[in-house]
Amino acid sequence: MSDSDTSNSMPERKRGSGVKVVYDLLRDEILDLVLPPGSPIDEVQLAERFKMSRTPIREALVRLAGEGLIDTLPNRSTMVANIDFLNLHTFFDALVLMYRVTTRLAAQHHRPEDLEVIRARQDEFAAAVRAQDALAMIATNAAFHSAIAEAGRNPYFTGLFNRLLDEGRRILRLYYQSYDDRLPQRFVDEHEDMIAVIAARDAEAADRLARTHAEQIVEQIQKLFARNDRLDLVL
Amino acid sequence: MSDSDTSNSMPERKRGSGVKVVYDLLRDEILDLVLPPGSPIDEVQLAERFKMSRTPIREALVRLAGEGLIDTLPNRSTMVANIDFLNLHTFFDALVLMYRVTTRLAAQHHRPEDLEVIRARQDEFAAAVRAQDALAMIATNAAFHSAIAEAGRNPYFTGLFNRLLDEGRRILRLYYQSYDDRLPQRFVDEHEDMIAVIAARDAEAADRLARTHAEQIVEQIQKLFARNDRLDLVL
DNA sequence: TGTATTTTATTTGTCGACAAAAATTGCAGG
DNA sequence: CCTGCAATTTTTGTCGACAAATAAAATACA
Question: Fewest beta carbons within 10 Å, which of A15, A122, A207, B50?
Answer without folding.
Answer: A15
